[in-house]
Every structure is written in structure tokens, then in C-alpha cells.
Amino acid sequence: MKNILLPILCTLFFTACITKEKFVDTFDRGKDWAELQTQLPPYPQADNLLEFNVGPTSTHRYFVDASSIKVENDGVIRYSLVVKSAQGAENASFEGIRCETREKKRYALGRNDRTWVQPRVSEWELLENVSQDYAQRELAKYYFCPRGLIVGSSEEAIRALKAGAHPNALR
């Protein structure tokens, strides 16, 4: 009897597992995140640059073009970043930070003729996984996404940059 009962129970168990409906949470169903199309800002001007600190290990100086900062409805803060080396070299990029997921994306790179060009790779990357992006991590942590929340406006982001950190940021 035991030899017959075990296969029957196994068959019933597997049948129940196969026919069981998959649970679908309908509360957030259909609410996928969609990134907005973005317009490239004018190339950064020296008069609009706000310097920020990325820590004692960097020999470069980092700036955000205040006129380029946009806090968008898709939860992305877009801005132009300018990096100046101690030798005088200058690099510009137009980037975005998504506070909710702690990701960054590079939309454009600056050229010597002060125009933008599309980078070879323009995908969302986790800030923690990219070792050379000190500036983006600092911007997210202390200026644009204090305690994981997104600033409410470009004016709030500019005030944080001018003050050296957002008032809600933990230093």
C-alpha cells in the first residue's frame, strides 16, 4: 500500500504546484519607470560653474554648471559636470543621476570646440560599481540625493552646491 500511496501523493503535489496561479501584485502593475527625452544644454560657461569637493584624494577640481541643472519629472537630475586637472586640462560632460536607484548616466561629452558629442556608451550604471566616478557619488550623496531623496528643484540643488552640502545630508 505504501508503494502505491507515495507516487500518488507526489503526483498530486506536483500537479498542485503546476496549476497554482502565479501571484501578481496589481498595485504597482504597469508602472514601469520611463526616462524622459532630454535636450542638451548649452556648453558650460565659466561664470556659471559652482565648485564642489569630492574629498582629499583627488587632485582635480570639480564643477557643476548651475544653469544646466534640471530636476525632471522622471526622477533624474541632469547637469553639466566640468573637471579641471592640476595641469590645466578640462573635461566636460552632460550627465544624469537617478536618486531612487543610485545610478548615473552620461548623455554627452564635451569637445575642444565647446560642442557636445554622444559617448560610445550611454547606459545607466550603479554609482557603487564604477570606481572612478567620485564626483557623481559625492553629488548624489551630499548635494542632489541627500539621504536618498531627490532635491525638489534646481534652485535647491544650487543652494546645496553653494553651501558645500545639502542641509539634510549626513557628513
UniProtKB/TrEMBL annotation:
Domain CNP1-like uncharacterised: residue ranges: 29-162
Entry-linked Pfam families: CNP1
Domain of life of the organism encoding this protein: Bacteria
Name of the protein: CNP1-like family protein
Organism: Nitrosomonas communis
Organism classification: Bacteria, Pseudomonadati, Pseudomonadota, Betaproteobacteria, Nitrosomonadales
